[in-house]
């Protein structure tokens, strides 16, 4: 790390960092996991924080957006459930970093997940996360985003009923609760005014 700092000082403007050097030897997901492991040791935790910041900055300066970084970390190919994967939280931090620098872009966690998973698979992931105490709050936030998306696109409640697989579930089941909330919100949407032929000029 000291060598790269000295090199950058001598060759001012050269985009060389410890992370850029490590990228010559490790893929993004492998390097991110190495940084996470380093954070667990008191002797390397400070270095890991610095490398973590460098990796965030490197992705941004190289022009990667959150959707692309999701792919770089191979989160869509991972065997580990999405929200149990420590790389998800690396990616989540990058989303926050990216949005802070580009607040006008509509780039959210939910929007990216929709690009990688179809609606049925994404709902399965979210309901599994809902059942785990340590990921329940995360699942709740993303399920709220899903309802907002359905409302925005004015998805037919019958379609939502089918997607949530509400039939025969208990009244207090999250699927039923979500559907009931959606149905009420959908009913409050402004109705499209029908134009009478007599009003046409």
TrEMBL record:
UniProt keyword Signal, yes or no: yes
RxLR effector PexRD54 WY domain segment(s): 55-95
Record-linked InterPro entries: PexRD54_WY (IPR054463)
A GO cellular-component term linked to this record: host cell
Subcellular location, principal: host cell
Regions crossing the membrane: none
Pfam families per UniProt: PexRD54_WY
Signal peptide limits: none
Record localization: Host cell; Secreted
Family to which the UniProt record says this protein belongs: Belongs to the RxLR effector family.
Protein name per its UniProtKB record: RxLR effector PexRD54 WY domain-containing protein
Organism, as annotated: Phytophthora nicotianae
């Amino acid at each position: 790390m000291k060598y790269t700092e000295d090199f950058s000082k001598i060759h001012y403007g050269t985009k060389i960092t410890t992370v850029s050097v490590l990228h010559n030897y490790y893929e993004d997901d492998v390097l991110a996991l190495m940084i996470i492991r380093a954070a667990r040791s008191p002797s390397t935790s400070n270095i890991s924080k610095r490398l973590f910041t460098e990796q965030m900055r490197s992705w941004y300066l190289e022009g990667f957006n959150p959707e692309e970084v999701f792919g770089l970390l191979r989160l869509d190919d991972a065997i580990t459930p999405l929200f149990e994967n420590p790389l998800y939280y690396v990616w989540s931090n990058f989303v926050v970093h990216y949005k802070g620098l580009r607040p006008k872009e509509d780039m959210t966690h939910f929007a990216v997940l929709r690009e990688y998973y179809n609606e049925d698979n994404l709902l399965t992931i979210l309901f599994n996360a809902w059942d785990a105490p340590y990921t329940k709050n995360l699942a709740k936030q993303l399920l709220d985003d899903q309802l907002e998306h359905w409302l925005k696109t004015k998805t037919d409640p019958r379609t939502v009923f089918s997607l949530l697989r509400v039939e025969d579930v208990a009244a207090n089941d999250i699927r039923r609760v979500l559907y009931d909330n959606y149905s009420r919100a959908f009913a409050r949407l402004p109705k499209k005014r029908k134009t009478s032929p007599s009003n046409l000029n």
